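Our consortium's second objective concerns turning raw sequence data into structural hypotheses that experimental partners can test. To show how far this objective has progressed, the report includes one record in full. It was chosen at random from the queue rather than selected for favorable results. The single chain below, 149 residues long, was entered without modification.
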Amino acid sequence: MTDFDQYQRLGEPTKREKVFAWSTAVGLQQVDGLTPSPYLIETAKQNIAGDISFDEVNQEESFDYRNLSREQAIEHLARFTADLWQIHVFGEGNTRTTAVFLIKYLRKLGFHQVDNDLFAQHSWFFRNALVRAIPSKTVNYIYSIKMIR
């Protein structure tokens, strides 16, 4: 008998694990003095209920940028980045990790000139841009768009 148990894919988390993960995300937002948006709460509920999987929450992987103008691509990236930050996918150090992720993602898309200096010099602006993009009565992606430009 071979020992392949260590390679077994765990699959989708249990309902209890999902509740814990989303509760952590909401709690970490509250630590920063933020109120979770209706978008975050609805996404969490849908995921916990099994209506959407974590894979569906992360649909960006199949997004096609080829037919977008530069401005459309920037707007999409701003929304995607803000939404990613909003659901607190990276746990502790979410803002820093979101910035590093965005740098790597932009490089993958061909923007090789992007480096950490932009975020190091404008970290407060980046964080505030993400906060201002939290869905509410008026969603404001303008600052996220400026950051990516």
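The partners drew two points from this record. The chain has a mean pLDDT of 76. The helical segments are 15-31, 38-49, 54-57, 70-86, 94-108, 116-121, 123-132, 142-148. Both points have been shared with the crystallography group to help prioritize constructs.
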